Amino acid sequence: MLDISVIIPVYNAGRFLEKAVQSAVHFEEVKEIILVEDKSTDNSLEICKKLADGNSKIKLFQHPDQENHGAGATRNLGIEKATGSFITFLDADDYYLPNRFNAEKEIFEDPKIDGVFSAIGVEYLTEKGKQEYLTKFKDSPLTTVNYPAEGEEVFRGLLSLTPKTFGTFFHLNALTVRKSAIDKHNLRFNVNLRVHQDSDFNIKLAYHCYLKSGIIDQPVAIRGIHDDNRITKIVQYSPQYNQRQYIYWKSLYDWASSQNIPEEYKKRVYLSYKSFDLSQKKGLIKYLNIIVEGLKNPDILKTKYRFNYYR
Fold this sequence. Notes:
Blueprint: E1 4-10, H1 17-25, E2 30-37, H2 44-54, E3 58-62, H3 70-81, E4 86-89, E5 95-96, H4 102-107, E6 115-117, E7 119-124, H5 127-137, E8 142-143, H6 152-158, E9 175-178, H7 179-184, H8 197-208, E10 211-213, E11 219-225, H9 239-258, H10 263-279, H11 283-296
Parallel strand pairs: 1-2, 1-4, 2-3, 6-10, 7-11
Antiparallel strand pairs: 4-9, 5-11, 6-9, 7-8
C-alpha cells in the first residue's frame, strides 16, 4: 500500500484549512499530513495547532525563525520533513475528492513511474473571485492535459513541443511523486519565485523524472476560487504579468543552461525567456532589440508570446 505525505503550506487560510485537512486525513494511503505555517496574520496557526493536537497523522511545522518565507520555501520545508515514500501537495484553500489516489494505486505498481498527475476542478467561493477567474481562464471546469502521456512526452508537452496541444500545466494538488525521485535529483521549489513556483517545479520534475498521466477527464481535487487568489489578479501582458513571466522563464533558462539537456529544449526555454526579456524594454531600444534578436533567432517570432512584444 502507498504511504503518502501530504504537504500543506499554510498562510492566512483559516477559513478553509480544516476542510482541506479533513479531505486528506481519512485516506488509508495518507501516512501523514504536514502543515507548514508561514507566519499567517489570521488565526491559521491556532487552527493548525488544534488540528495537530486532535490527530496523530497531522504534524505542524514552522520555519526556524518563525518568519514568512513564501510558498516555495514553505513547500521545501515540508519536503524536508516528509517521512512517507510518496509526496503530494494540497493548497490550504483547496481539497481532495474521494478518487484522489485511485490512479496511483495501480500506476505505481510499475517501479519506473516516478510521478502521477491528474485533473483538478474549480469551486467558486466568492462572486468577485469567480469573475476574476473567468476573465483570465474563461469557463474551464478542469485544469488538465489534453491527452494521456508519460515519460519524455510530458516534458515536451509542457514546453509546447508536441505535434498536438498537450496543455501547459497540471496542478500540484493532483501530483503524487516518489520522494526518492525528488531527493535523487535534488528537486526543490525556487524560493525566488513568488508566483509560478509550481510550473517551474513541474517542468524540472518532468525532465528529471518519469511522469505518467492518471485521471485526466474528471477532477481528483478542487481548487477554491475566492477574492485572494493572487494568480487571477494579474492582467495578461500587463507590466506586472510580463515581469513575473520574465522571472519565471529566467529561472528555467538558468536551470536549462546548467543542465546537459538536448539543444532543442534549451532553445525552446531560451526563446520564451528572451521574449519576456524583450517585453521589459521600452521605446526605440525595445524595437531595435526585437530586430536584432529576430535576425539571430527567427523562431522567436513563432513563440506563443510573440504578440507580447508590441503591447
